User: Which sequence fits this backbone?
């Protein structure tokens, strides 16, 4: 990427802004709007996480600490605003969260960034556990299990904006999300951003050229804490509630999943991941109780076969699309998708039947509907059929996979030649 | 970049539209059941769902309510307050006006608050909330809400019953408090100390420990400390593994003190405790399977017959009572509109298998008898039913009458006008 | 005195259990550079496998079968999972084990349900071994200690007396040299991984019934084991041993101390305003903070000595 101003980049940002503005006008239901709001928050959080993992190579298992602490400080600030003891516009509340995140980023960063790699990961986990354990011990600040609840409709309405209706909240989140996206992108273009990449790729060499890797890591962690805190404050405005579970290790693991599934090697990867994961977590859980399992398997498959995430898959196909050779991949891809679908069908059928037997069989009987079909999970037949489908799908996929690979090799060679020519 | 972003967002939103389908069919009364149905507490949510199903089926057998069949619609809150708020939006989108929840006061507080804001902003879509087990006193005191009704007894009411019983036990001289270090555990410790010192000033509180929630693997050091203190009764609000491990460690060290608990009979706990709890593990509940009476036996047996493979038992009388009271109130006002049903629930009295249950009008808390019982081996007589097919059940020590559990309230909710 | 002796024994048995877990983690980390996030999941699987097998064949065969089954799973994990992601670097390996831990928990939910399973200690060991004054000491705890010590001796013998042990040991201190000598064959990796998993599985077999066997047991020990390994020094078995005993003792003994900062202020004559917002912090006793102490210790260790107690290299 060039540092220079480019019309193309401007266009990309403008289009992003347009999507954010139009989205809630298309999906007007209360639930859809609140999901869009959540996606906006998740995008900031995932991008801030990727400042560590993708850009500086620091695998953190405790990033939700900064999110959560930022959220708690802004919740208290919001309550103080409501009580009239603290004058501050609600729309700028995320700054308070950000500063809180920054302060804790500085404190914990000082301890943790002396290490890199695996020790850093473990220490971040230890600190996350410590903060999570403390959060239950001090109910006056963390509100115990009920958390701290607030009211975002405080102060005088500015131009009719009270932040009562969720649409107004969405636009506030979208605005902050957009600003944070630009800020975090700009950061990647600064010398600090470049140094972070150097520290990630080769800390020794970074040291030789005169940069202190520890300081670079420290700065990146503090800044990531700042953005995470902003996301936390937006969460407070969105839900008018923050509980201690939001700074726990599960939340930290979640943001890791988002960034990784989206793709940590590209700036826009975590954005895809945040949108996709937020959506899946809401949508899948409506359809199946086994969503956590599917989610885990999805994650494992991604690591095994696409460690660059969705973003890298897109990038890989860029030259192919540019040289108009996507058509040559169409057939193998369709075949692979079909056999993967067969495999999934078998797997999902087995898992769903297991879950049905385990949890639902007694309320509604062993007869269940699966893919629009009625079947009795107490009989052997559907199990055998599902197992056969699973094995057949697996075999097919292994078989088709070879063709996909060779087609891919052919196409990339051809694409490179076409580009070189 | 834009393309992919847009595509992901569009696909997501289209699907969101698809599953959030609109209003209900005619002739069906939908009741949303909000509970964690996946993740670590999924099994607890399932138990309540079975009870609600059980209650709904009984009402439907008799022709439903006002000619409408009851349909239970489960929603997964993932036991998270934030998720519960999202789910609440969903059920409102779907036109559901009644919801039930009971696991976790954090979720309950969030839901009550979200419902309060929603009802105030959208009076034509008023939602009514039946709480069958979230026991934070705040829900019917400082943070009460006109459309929130609680059918279980709260922490303080149970503590009142427990300390009434303890005060009558002459053998108790030294009491040890051990609780989980979070709002519930801390309030149990506080209430126990206050009520015990008031009712029996001669009782010595010899220890007051708070340990982190669900983090202690080995309770042996705590037990060593309890033993060193010479306590002859231990009061704990611990639930789940925190109570099971405590009892096991006590048994290992040969500690003979009585344990007064809230949740010894909680799902999954008795199988872990097993033999270790027999004789000195007590619980305070609004129901257990061996309170006696033909109604109890019939219910417990009917539940076992209905759900033969589940290891859980008929437990949530609060769900049964909630559904009975709801249908009575609806029939009384001949309407399923929550704004009419809610006032009709106030002061409602019903006869149940545990005795008379009354819905208080001033804070919407159900008042009912409370039982103290001891973990014992089943003997076919006063310990007829075991819990979770363990061979152990609870034996009633005392029944605290409803009137003795009533506590003053600080609740001042806003009544809807008209 | 009674309290002290009982607590000392308790801390020893807990510390030894921690070592059983941390030794496997340390071995795997030293050899392969992989921090196995799913290590505690193998501990959990050990307990569940033992529960399942003991229902058919009793506890004693399960004591052998369950760790072997876990070892087999460990070998499969290494062969078909870690080896595939190895080329993507350590972060991918770590994430793979993270995803694996996540998935294993869900699979356990699916197979054994979400409630604890009634995995009990064998009746033959259900008596009190001896009494210290008035406190009984359960035989099963003695048995746990015996198994731990036997494992410790066995591990020591394997590491110092066998050829594979020599290679493993060499790679603790000179990983590059071992690699250069051509020893770092994938088979050794697989064996070490399987061996580490087996140790965790064994800990699960004897810990699962002493405490509780439920799907949350992996999470509850997972992080504390990480603390032990960091505290003791990454890749040092001796460090892990000492750290296990120290952390075990700290967690067990701290329960006894009801002192808080308030007590300290009181004794040095500082008066604290009881309405102050910080009161909650001053009032926290050591006993109350017991389970947080290991993390505090770890952070303190990192500030004073970033390598950890006996560590020789920094990750």
Assistant:
């Amino acid at each position: 990427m060039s540092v220079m101003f480019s019309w193309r980049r401007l266009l990309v940002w403008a289009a992003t802004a347009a999507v954010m503005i139009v989205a809630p006008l298309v999906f007007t239901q209360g639930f859809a709007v609140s999901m869009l709001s959540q996606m906006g928050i998740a995008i900031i959080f995932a991008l801030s996480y990727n400042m560590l993992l993708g850009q500086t190579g620091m695998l953190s298992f405790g990033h939700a600490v900064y999110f959560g602490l930022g959220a708690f400080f802004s919740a208290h600030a919001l309550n103080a605003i409501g009580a009239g003891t603290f004058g501050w516009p609600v729309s700028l509340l995320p700054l308070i969260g950000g500063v809180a995140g920054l302060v804790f980023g500085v404190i914990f960063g000082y301890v943790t960034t002396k290490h890199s790699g695996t020790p850093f990961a473990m220490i971040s986990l230890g600190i996350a556990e410590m903060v999570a354990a403390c959060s239950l011990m001090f109910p006056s600040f963390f509100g115990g299990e009920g958390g701290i609840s607030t009211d975002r409709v405080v102060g005088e309405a500015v131009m009719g904006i009270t932040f009562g209706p969720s649409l107004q909240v969405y636009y506030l989140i979208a605005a902050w999300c957009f600003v944070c996206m630009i800020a975090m992108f700009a950061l990647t273009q600064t010398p600090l951003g470049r140094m972070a990449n150097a520290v990630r790729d080769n800390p020794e060499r970074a040291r030789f050229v005169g940069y202190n890797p520890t300081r670079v890591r420290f700065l990146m962690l503090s800044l990531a804490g700042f953005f995470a805190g902003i996301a936390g404050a937006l969460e407070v405005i969105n839900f008018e509630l923050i509980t201690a579970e939001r700074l726990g290790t599960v939340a930290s693991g979640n943001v890791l999943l988002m960034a990784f599934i989206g793709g940590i090697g590209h700036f826009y990867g975590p954005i895809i991941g945040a949108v996709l994961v937020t959506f899946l977590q809401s949508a899948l859980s409506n359809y199946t109780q086994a969503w956590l399992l599917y989610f885990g398997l999805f994650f494992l498959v991604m690591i095994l076969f696409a460690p660059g995430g969705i973003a890298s898959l897109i990038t890989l196909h860029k030259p192919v699309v540019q040289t108009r050779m996507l058509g040559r991949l169409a057939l193998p891809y369709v075949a692979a998708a079909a056999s993967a679908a067969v495999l999934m069908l078998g797997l999902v059928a087995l898992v769903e039947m297991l879950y049905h037997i385990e949890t639902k069989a007694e309320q509604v009987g062993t007869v269940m509907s699966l893919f629009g079909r009625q079947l009795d999970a107490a009989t052997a037949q559907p199990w055998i059929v599902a197992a056969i489908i699973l094995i057949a799908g697996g075999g097919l996929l292994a078989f088709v996979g070879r063709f996909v690979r060779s087609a891919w090799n052919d196409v990339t060679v051809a694409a490179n030649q076409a580009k070189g020519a | 970049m834009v393309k992919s972003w847009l595509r992901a967002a569009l696909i997501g939103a289209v699907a969101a539209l698809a599953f959030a389908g609109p209003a209900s069919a005619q002739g069906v009364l939908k009741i949303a059941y909000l509970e964690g149905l996946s993740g670590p507490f999924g099994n607890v949510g399932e138990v309540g769902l079975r009870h609600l199903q059980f209650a709904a089926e009984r009402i439907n057998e008799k022709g439903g309510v006002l000619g409408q069949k009851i349909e239970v619609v489960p929603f997964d809150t993932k036991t998270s307050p934030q998720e519960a708020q999202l789910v609440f939006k969903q059920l409102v989108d779907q036109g559901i006006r009644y919801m039930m929840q009971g696991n976790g006061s954090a979720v309950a507080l969030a839901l009550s608050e979200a419902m309060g804001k929603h009802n105030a902003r959208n009076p034509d879509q008023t939602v009514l909330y039946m709480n069958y087990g979230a026991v934070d006193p705040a829900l019917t005191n400082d943070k009460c809400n006109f459309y929130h009704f609680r059918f279980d007894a709260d922490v303080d009411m149970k503590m009142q019953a427990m300390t009434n019983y303890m005060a009558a036990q002459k053998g108790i001289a030294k009491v040890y408090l051990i609780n989980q270090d979070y709002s519930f555990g801390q309030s149990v410790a506080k209430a126990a100390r206050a009520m015990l010192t008031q009712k029996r000033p001669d009782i010595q509180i010899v220890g007051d420990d708070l340990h982190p929630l669900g983090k202690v693997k080995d309770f042996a050091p705590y037990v060593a400390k309890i033993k060193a203190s010479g306590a002859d009764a231990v009061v704990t609000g611990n639930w789940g593994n925190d109570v099971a491990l405590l009892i096991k460690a006590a048994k290992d060290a040969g500690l003979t003190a009585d344990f007064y608990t809230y949740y010894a009979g909680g799902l999954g706990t008795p199988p872990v405790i097993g033999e270790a709890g027999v004789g000195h593990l007590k619980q305070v509940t609004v129901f257990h399977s061996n309170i006696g009476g033909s109604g109890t036996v019939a219910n417990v047996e009917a539940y076992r017959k209905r759900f033969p493979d589940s290891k859980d038992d008929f437990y949530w009388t609060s769900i049964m009572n909630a559904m009975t009271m709801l249908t009575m109130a609806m029939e009384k006002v001949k309407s399923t509109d929550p704004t009419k049903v809610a006032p009709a629930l106030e002061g409602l009295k019903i006869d149940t298998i545990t005795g008379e249950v009354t819905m208080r009008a001033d804070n919407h808390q159900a008042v009912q008898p409370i039982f103290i019982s001891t973990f014992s081996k089943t003997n076919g007589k006063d310990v007829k039913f075991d819990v979770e097919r363990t061979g152990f059940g609870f034996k009633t020590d005392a029944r605290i009458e409803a009137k003795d559990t009533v506590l003053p309230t600080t609740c001042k909710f806003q009544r809807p006008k008209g | 005195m009674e309290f002290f002796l009982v607590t000392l024994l308790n801390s020893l048995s807990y510390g030894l259990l921690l070592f059983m877990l941390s030794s496997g983690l340390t071995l795997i980390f030293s050899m392969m550079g992989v921090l196995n996030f799913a290590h505690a999941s193998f501990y959990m699987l050990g307990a569940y496998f033992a529960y399942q097998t003991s229902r058919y064949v009793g506890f004693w065969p399960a004591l052998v079968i369950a760790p072997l089954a876990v070892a087999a799973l460990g070998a499969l994990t290494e062969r078909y999972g870690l080896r595939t992601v190895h080329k993507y670097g350590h972060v991918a390996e770590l994430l793979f084990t993270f995803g694996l831990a996540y998935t294993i928990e869900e699979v356990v939910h699916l197979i054994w349900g979400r409630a604890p399973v009634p995995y009990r200690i064998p009746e033959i060991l259900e008596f009190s071994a001896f009494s210290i004054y008035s406190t009984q000491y359960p035989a099963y705890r003695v048995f746990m200690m015996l198994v731990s010590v036997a494992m410790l001796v066995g591990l020591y013998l394997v590491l110092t007396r066998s050829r594979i042990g020599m290679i493993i040991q060499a790679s603790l201190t000179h990983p590059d040299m071992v690699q250069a000598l051509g020893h770092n064959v994938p088979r050794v990796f697989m064996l070490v991984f399987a061996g580490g998993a087996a140790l965790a599985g064994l800990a699960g077999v004897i810990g699962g019934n002493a405490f509780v066997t439920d799907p949350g047991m992996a999470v509850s020990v997972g992080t504390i084991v990480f603390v032990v390994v960091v505290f003791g020094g990454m890749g040092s078995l001796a460090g892990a041993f000492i750290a296990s005993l120290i952390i075990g003792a700290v967690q067990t003994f701290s329960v006894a101390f009801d002192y808080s900062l308030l007590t300290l202020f009181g004794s040095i004559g500082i008066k604290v305003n009881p309405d102050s917002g910080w009161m909650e912090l001053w009032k926290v006793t050591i006993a109350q903070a017991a389970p947080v102490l290991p993390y505090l210790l770890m952070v303190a260790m990192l500030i004073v000595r970033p390598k950890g107690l006996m560590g020789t290299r920094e990750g």
